[in-house]
Protein 1
Amino acid sequence: MSYLRKVAAIIAKDIAAELRTREMLSSMGVFSILVIIVFNFALELTDRQIVLTATPGALWVTIIFAGMLGLNRSLAVELDKGCLDGLLLTPVDRSAIFFGKALGNALFMLIVEVVVLPLFVVFFDVPLIRPWVMVIVVLGTLGFAGVGTLLSSMAVNTRAREVMLPILLFPVAMPELVAAVKATAGAMAGLPVSEWQQWLTLLIVFDVILVAVSFMVFEYVVEE
Amino acid sequence: MSDLMNFKNAIFLVAAYSVFWLGTFLYVLTLNQRQRNLEKDLDALEALVEKDK
Amino acid sequence: MRPKIDVAGSALTIASAALVVTALALVFLWAPREITMKEVQRIFYFHVAVDWVGFLAFFVTLVASIAYLRTRDRKWDILGAASVEIGALFLTMGAVTGSLWARPVWNTWWTWDARLTTVAITWLVYLAYLMLRGAIDDPQRRARFSAVYGIVSFVTVPLTFASVFFLRTIHPALFASSTEAQGRMQFETGLGSARMGMTLMLCVIAFTVVYVALLRSRIRLEQMADRVARLQQEIVG
């Protein structure tokens, strides 16, 4: 119980910090809107078929880019304010710090997604408010936030800082992205789960593997 | 007709094997260059250390 | 005192050269001629060998990364970094020559099938690894972070292959496949595929030895750089 409480405490700290300034959420939100508008001009909206085919990919690109903004902010603030060092001085299991930070990052991404999904529905008239779509979005977000938190905690400690994260993260997150996009496409089309369930399975498997590996090596990143 | 195709294809073949050769050769060259530079530095530094003693 | 004659190094260089020459001879003189692709198909031998070793290099880095995190011995860090560098070189050559083979045979420079996508992603990982190292000054942190990334990024190799593989099996008609192209190779002489197999095997062995030789040189270079750094410290301190 105490472990969970520590994780919850870390998440609560991040939420409290964000509520004060709302910097991260607002920049993630504005960025998402910008991306959606750019897609509007990039996609041929007159052709319904093209819109339907391209939406899952466009959605996930939006999520990933906004997510990276959040990841960068979240870990950069830790570094600047020395919060991470403070946390490390306390007798908290390193893995609790990892889950706390990762879940916190996932939570912020989910908040932004709550805005992004309806925006897509409004601007592109696509059926994204389906239960399965939401399940897939949550699953994809969890995996992405997990490995993203690990890599971001490294990236932020390099000379190139924020620029380093996309370079490190994209190749690693690629399989996850493919599975999420294909699953979303299936769910969005209203197809029965059996038709696209292998993507859902892959998504879950990828999540488990990425989060497990990230959690195992995190302690090596924060030891100083 | 088929002869022309074979000839054009042969260009790809030659190009591909040049890539292998060039790639390896250039890498070995850079390694040698860096090694020579380091050996120079090493000699200079070792001489300095000798002088200090 | 630095030893003037490097026996192991010379031996490796000679072995590499000998194997490569033999491989070339086999490829161009002994290996069977493919019916449809004719001579261009011979690119296949070195191309596959170099790709194969390019991935082997990643595995070496994975092992070195794990070993470093457990022992904190600089030698593992050197091995991991050197292997990535040479692996990147090999995969680059593999990708370029693959394109040079694909163009005349399928009339396209690239296709996003499972293998090629995995090669591209692995190449990006190598690049990321090297950039990560370039962005960290502190040697211990650089070694630690590289090791962490070496381990985490390795999983993307099988995962990427799996995800694109499933993509292909669901829509087979949409994706040209290098596997299919290779499977469909037919040779003029009766013993065709046997000769092909043996030639390929020798090419893989040849490139593995080249890899080891280059690795050794790269490692020694890094060790020398370490010595220089240490001496500089000594003089300043």
Protein 2
Amino acid sequence: MATDVAPYQNIGPLEKYRNEAWKCLRCGLCRMVNPERVKSWKWSSQCPAGSRFLFEAYYGSGKQEMVRALTAHPPELALSRRLQHIIYTCTLCGACQATCNYVKDLEPTNASVALREYAVREGWGPLPEHEPLIKSILNYDNPWLQPRAARSRWARKQGLPKVKDAAKDKVEVLYYPGCTASYDPFIQDVARDVVRLLGAAGVDFGILGKEEICCGSTILRVGDRERFEIVRKKNTESLNRTGAGTILTACAGCYSTLKREYGADLQAEVFHIVEYIERLLAEGRLAMQREVRRKVTYHDPCHLGRYCGLYDAPREILGRIPGVEFREMERIREWAWCCGAGGGVRTAFPEEVATWAARLRLEEAADSGADTLVTACPFCELNLGEAARGGASGIRVVDILALVAEAV
Amino acid sequence: MSAGQPAIATELFDYERKQRVVSETLRRIQDVVGPDYATADPEILSVYSRDFTITPQRRPNIVVLPGSTEEVQRIVRIAHEFSMPVYVLTSGFNHAGSFIPRRGGIMADLKRMNRILDIDEESMTATFEPYVPIAVLYEECNKRCAVRDIMLRPANPITYGSACMMSNVLSGGVAFMALKSGSHAENVVSMTWVTPQGEILVTGPPAVPNVGPVPVLGPGPDVGGMFLGAEGNFGICTRMTIRLFTENPWPREKIFLIHPVDEKEDRPEEVASLFYDITRDNYAQSLYKGSNRHSAQIAATSAEDVEAIIESLPTTIVYCVLAGLDAEELAIKKRHLDEQLDAHGRFVEMPEEAKTLFFETLGKTEEEVNRLLLKRCYTGPGRVGRWKGSFQWMAYVVKLEKIAQLEERYKAIVHRYWISPDYYGPSSATTTDTALQGPYQYGRTVMLEYDFYYDQGNPEEVKRAALVYEKLHRMMLESGAVNCKVVSRSLELQMPRLGTYYELCKKLKKVMDPQGIMSPDTMPLMDDYV
Amino acid sequence: MAAVVGPENVKDDPGFLSAYFLGQQGVSGLVVVLPAAVEEVQGVVRNCASDRIPLFTTYDTYLPDEAASASGVVIDFCRMNAIERIDAKNLCVHIQRGVTFEQLEEALRPQGLAALYPAAATTRSVLCHAVSRGINQAAARYPEVQVANMQVVLQDGSVHRTGSHANSEEMADWKEDGGPNISKWYLGADDVFGIVVCGSVWVYPRFEGRYFEAFGFEDRQAVVALAKDLARMELAAQCLAMNREAMAARFGVQREGLSAWTLLAGTEGFRELAAYHRKKIVEFAAGAGGRRMGPELADRIASGMSVPWYVRPKHSVGFYTLFGRIPRFEAILEAAARRNGLSAGADIGMTYLAYGLGRAVSCRYDLPEEGMPGSFVAELERELALAGAFFDRPRGALAEQVYGSAPAYAAQIKKIKAMMDPRGIFNPGRPFKGICDGD
């Protein structure tokens, strides 16, 4: 029965969400897993910022109320450090909107986005911690302050098949690794696995290498529409120039940004690797024959799940890997707990929110009986993996492609 | 300063001094809970200033998140010391503006007190803290067994699963299975209260050492009752033990839908007589009278859908829940229901095809509908609440035989001051409907409910809501009914009518809370109430 | 007093007074008044309040021993025995305090109605039993509070109408108050806050289907477990386990031929449903090893369970607990019995009645008529209470013990008492000494 207003869809001016604030029932659905789905007390919360700080303002309903107060005549509130904290500790995971839409047409996540963009316009955002990333994207086409030339170093690993240069050669499929998989040594194997799997399936693909430009998701999520537009235009031109009909990415953030924020300007069709692998498996172009003996559970990345509705493909894939014993956590799909990294939170509040949320997710994974937590987002993998390495959960965090590559 | 008058809360008070008092109070409270859990930041205060009821906005001066009974006690003592009002919040979902801090002061948000402390199969009780949502309590109880394959569950109220069980019990909420379980008040075993003077009081058998959660009243005078329906005027509840009930697994507990033979008939006296028949034989678990308008509220996905659904469904829909130890018992009860319907002559069971179609409009299978209504409790107010926003209702307890006369008066008011109850228009229109919740054991009484949906952002709708609400309250009270669940204006209008009882409540307020710091003005109990 | 109730209704003769006490002679210092109407009670209370004269009432057959040496006024409600209204449609009767079970039964039977039969009544008054939350035979199915509305005469002589009757007696008989549920404090209060004079009590249809079964067991554990389960499965409205001694005393049957324990289960409802419940009870009892009693005993039980059960004052100990704790308390009983040269199983009637869907159990130990030291009951109650037995209406020394162990609870009672009875006239010293300052 949900109206299914996805996060980041048709973000309007702040006043649009003011009217919605009047309609909020303060029912508390934005704080917890959908009551129809909740299974236990332990795993009943769903809002990382709200669960962390507990004041009403940090939940979806609270942020709608912020909007109402800011746009009242005269305003009841003004932007401030506290309001900044409230706005920017939100990972924009979309969970509040998913549960709210179960019974109402409100858009608390979108209200949070609108708040964020308003804060930027008024000079209260992005946070100082975000600026280096934004400048790095604008200057180096990646948020990691890394040189462009190093972007495709991951592809030069010994034993990896040579990859076509899509900047020079026409390819059917453009593989778009994204900045995290390109630069982060913990995540580069994701990109390598993509290459191996596409190669094994005989897909005609290439990469842009050092010509690849950041999708701009980071800038968008911290509310800086203006600077995001700069990156979007630039990247759209770059991607269109390749002439590829399909853009494939293994990053949930890049996927949701390219697919939903780039609009009709982007000529290619965008797929996430899990969709593509599912298709390859169905067509028999890939076969998973080697056993992978793991007890596995799957973490739904927000940008893949709630943002884009992709829940089944990764489960299909995991279900087909021989030897894998799949267990679901309690909070899955639309009701999945956010890893804590999104919305600029990992950068600005690494311990306070990002690692804190990740540890809870790892505990939930352990409770499911799994020894491996699988995800399909490098950013989730980064945040969860770091928390796993620093903690005592005993859970190993891997990208889904690692298991697929192991099974192929 | 006279008794019952908080020093801080009057407009005549010196602002600068007030700010100093707030700062000092905040500092003391932060010493108790830590700086992360208490604040006077306006951004935080703002969100605690209003809800969806017709109660006007008012901000607290401090918000605090206590984590234990002892912290609550220390905070109340500080409030006492500074004569600062204290209001309390759990989920915030309520129909009476209960947590709105009418006189400012301290808002105690009990979100950190969210544990389920014990679910005891032996005594069939559950003990929990304030911020335990209804659906969560249900899920945890349902993992425990009463006997054989019959599991435990709380008597879930007909409200959001995300609302908190404790506050629903304290404000007189109604269980869907009230026909069996009675009122919430009957099922409270024990409570722990921090009184306005900062003492801790445990009520019920657990007050006596070594007794444990024996689910009986006492010892001696039941002193716990006074806290129920008191809107926080006598303290803050930090722990509650309630009786649990049994649940037969699907399909041994099942909803049957009944409607008048003439599907468009809307005759409350006939419903009343049917309810009398069924309840007299004490075999149904729940009865609820809804309508096509109610169903359209839940099922419609657009305003255009609404008319179509209303047209396709009977005007009156009765939900009758039967449960059995096994299929045989369920069948016996079902046969009896069928016989009673035949004998009554004016009602029939909804045919299977129509029922399937009805459930399809809800987007669910029959089993899912059962699970939703019976087990998970109600998830939302449906479509109209979806686009309107505010959902205020009132509920009065009456004998079944009185319903018809009250419905006539209700319709007269609505036709005059709202819009026709038969009109269910596009999103700019307001709407209202009635339901029978309960009845209570053996049909001795029933809760007659009137729902109102309006958009708080539309001043005309708010005016209309406030006016009709007042007129209906007055009509019901003048008819002799009593409000059973605390809702906006109910206590203010009702209590002064209740003679000696009202005088006793006012006296009790002075005894329990001489400084008048606990939830002042949520009830008309204090000398300076205006 | 004579001006209020009429001179013929004021008694102070010691012989007359002694009848209000058990085992006391030569009582003086008290005056008994017998009002016939609420207004008369109001007058009596006003008079006593203005002169600070203690007022004594009882929810049991007799007044407490301590009152025998007091001076004051005793109110006897035997003349307030009007059944004011039977609301057959809404299953409620409106009665005065003096209405007895027998009287009510006679009035209800022609209308096909009945009130619940008490399982351990200390009074013949229907209202008193209900207000003191007396246990009923059908406690497995029906809630403990069977009174909906009350009229309570307060110290200033005003009448507090509780529940929905505060607004109207016509529209509903709803027990919850329209705000804070203060009226609950009158329940189990022995009139210490005000005198309950009238009330609305729930009544029930007399079902066509009403059956009783009895099964013999040698093993107490098995019979108690079965009683709990039958109550939880909602098969039995009346569900109790009685030992041989209790069975013999209650139903007047020979001990020989009885098993060590008997499970009694009663079903009621429309005929087919009650028959089904009966069938299942028989099945489960057989499965648990129970020996079904013959029809003669079953008939005797059926008629024995259609009347109120009264307890013998000072020879009965009753408390609540959880089923799993029964052995704990039986051990205490056995030890106490042995100390006095008795055997619990042979000499003491033991009854375990399933309560509240089998959530708890009402335990009753009925002691022999003779041969018990006067202190036996008090000592037994003390030990049981220390071990966690719950006495919901403790009196005398037990009350001091129970309330003394819950000081905050007792303090709250004192607060209410100070508010409701500032002159301390209502049943002074109850439920515990020191309830009033200066007590």
